[in-house]
Write a structure and sequence with these properties.
577 residues; 8-stranded mixed beta sheet; 21 helices; 43% helix
Length: 577
């Protein structure tokens, strides 16, 4: 590539942290990390050394992956260099890897720091970049919860507690100083902290620090303060790449983006908790399928000639039951996370799937088509419910063509089976908060309503009632027609202005459905107390039939098709209803 080509490619990249690769044909010649991908790649138009200059001249393609933090970029860069051994990278010849925290699968689990987790049944967290920070936090966990750090051999051959018990680092389960049930409860607290619940450890440390300060034990208070800072930063800059369940050695994270008749699936692949690879795949969609259908087609094709992972994390559940049954038969756990670290990973996969779009061009094209001077900020709205129950509304925000997750909002609405009135209520809620100054977010340039003319008219009625002067358009999913107060647009499926609206619409739909499912699964219902219907079976019934009315009207055969529902359970349900 020459300097002009490098500059041209750089303009297509986002200003996010991530990893980039220079390729010669299919061969990776150089891997680098960046805080700002666009600025970093642009610098290669003026190479800083002869070696890098030769590398740029020899390569003919550029690839990249977006990450959530600089630390994740560092970890992914290191793993890609180890995997591909690029000619122009400085390659470590030793077998060094980043530290992990492992909680073993022993009857009385042990916590340890390791670079090579190989214990059967262990739960592994990490990798982390700072071994010193990891050591500080693990020591604090042991002091707070008394989890043993000794080997299984030492544990099995003791007749009295060791020194760790005397100095408060262990509760000595080896000599029954603590019962197994109480010990496992402490282990669960440790795993919750390592999984992201910082307050599990930060709260008792903060309380102890304040008590030491009040007692004028200032040296101890200072020590606890330093330890607290390490704990509170543990899930920030040193965040783990992927945290998997104890029996999951490999995990694939899939995110999909649909634009017109084309879909892109991004895959993040981890082994033993480390993010080691990523790739993207393009699919043609002659029928204009949605994301659920894309996964239904992609998964069996992609994994037909590859080894299946232990778990798949997806942005949406495939709509093909045959595919789900096949994955279940192969013992692959399929999850659509709604929150936590797994949801963050899915968001990263989605970001990589969507990265090809040139957001500024999309927004300029949209502004031109709608006769607006400019569009920088779009808010999307959708309503989700099951025949009028568990009614919720979503409000998502895109700025510069990218989602602003911190500005997302959601609203529980009154139980009403009226899509138009529900949308009117949702928009009135947003507009009133904006007008009276109770919403700290800036006003958008455009509102996007998920729906056609009926939903848009309801939204505009709410805007007029409150007096919030913001343009609004609707996007009907079936025909992908854009509806405005004065006309409709039937843009080609590859129109950039349509793509940005589709992404906002799809995200508002996903966010609404996620919240609706959470409420629907957690709500107390008439099924509570029915013999044979526990929380998991109740969730399956609601996901199959949508509501209590749907369950009431289902036939006995249809009820028995739900996993976990047999003759006795059907009889119990009939007795209750």
């Amino acid at each position: 590539m020459d300097a002009a080509t490098v500059r041209e490619r750089a303009t297509e990249l986002p200003r996010d942290p991530g990893v980039y690769q220079f390729l010669e044909g299919d061969t990776v010649r150089y891997v680098g990390k960046a805080v700002d991908l666009r600025a970093r790649v642009r610098s290669y138009a003026d190479p800083r050394s002869n070696r890098i200059g030769r590398m740029v001249e020899r390569t003919d393609a550029l690839d990249f992956a977006v990450t959530d933090t600089e630390t994740q970029a560092l970890l992914l860069e290191a793993n890609l260099i180890k995997r591909y051994q690029p000619r122009y990278n400085v390659r470590l010849k030793d077998d060094k890897s980043y530290p992990l925290v492992q909680v073993t699968g022993h009857e009385f689990p042990q916590i340890e720091i390791t670079r090579d987790p190989n214990r059967e049944g262990a739960t592994v967290f990490g990798p982390f970049t700072s071994k010193t920070n990891v050591e500080t936090v693990v020591k604090a966990l042991r002091e707070a919860y008394g989890i043993r750090g000794c080997s299984d051999f030492k544990f099995a051959n003791r007749d009295r507690p060791c020194l760790d018990y005397d100095i408060g680092l262990c509760t000595a389960p080896c000599t029954n100083e603590i019962g197994r049930e109480a010990y496992l409860a402490d282990v669960e607290s440790v795993e919750r902290f390592l999984g992201g619940e910082t307050d599990v450890l930060a709260t008792p440390l903060r309380k102890e620090m304040e008590e030491s300060a009040q007692s004028k034990e200032f040296e101890r208070a200072a020590n606890l303060r330093d330890r607290l800072e390490a704990v509170e930063s543990f899930h920030g800059g040193d965040a783990a790449a992927i945290s998997s369940q104890s029996d999951e050695r490999t995990v694939d994270v899939l995110g999909a983006s649909v634009e017109g008749e084309r879909a892109t699936v991004a895959r993040l692949h981890s082994e033993r908790g480390q993010l080691v690879d990523r790739d993207r795949h393009t699919l043609s969609l002659p029928d204009g399928d949605d994301v659920a259908a894309v996964f239904g087609g992609f998964i069996p094709q992609f994994y037909a000639e590859r080894e299946l992972p232990d778990a798949l994390l997806l942005s949406e559940r495939p709509d093909d039951m045959d595919v789900l049954d096949w994955l279940d038969a192969e013992d692959v756990s399929v999850r659509v996370p709604g929150a936590g670290r797994e949801a963050t990973l899915v968001d990263l996969a989605l970001k990589n799937a969507r990265r090809g779009a040139n957001a500024p061009d999309e927004l300029r094209a949209l502004a031109d088509e709608l006769s607006m001077s400019s569009i920088g900020r779009i808010e999307g709205f959708d309503v989700s419910h099951a025949q009028g129950s568990s009614v919720v509304g979503s409000n998502v925000v895109f700025a510069g063509g990218s989602p602003e997750k911190s500005d997302y909002r959601r609203k529980k609405l009154d139980e009403k089976n009226d899509d138009y009135d529900n949308m009117r209520t949702l928009i009135r809620w947003r507009a009133e908060r904006a007008v009276v100054g109770r919403d700290e977010r800036p006003d958008p340039e455009l509102l996007l309503i998920d729906g056609g003319k009926g939903q848009l008219d309801a939204a505009r009625e709410a805007l007029d009632e409150v007096g919030w002067d913001v343009p609004a358009v609707g996007l009907a999913k079936a025909e992908e027609i854009v509806v405005t107060p004065t006309r409709t647009f039937d843009w080609p499926s590859d129109a950039p202005q349509l793509h940005i609206l589709q992404r906002v619409r799809d995200e508002s739909h996903r966010f609404a459905v996620q919240y609706h499912q959470t409420l629907r699964d957690d709500v107390s219902t008439e099924l509570d107390g029915v013999r044979g219907v526990g929380p998991e079976t109740r969730r399956k019934l609601f996901r199959r039939f949508g509501s209590l009315d749907g369950i009431r009207s289902a036939s006995d055969d249809e009820l028995r098709e739900v996993e976990g529902v047999g003759e006795k359970t059907v009889a119990s349900i009939r007795e209750r209803f």
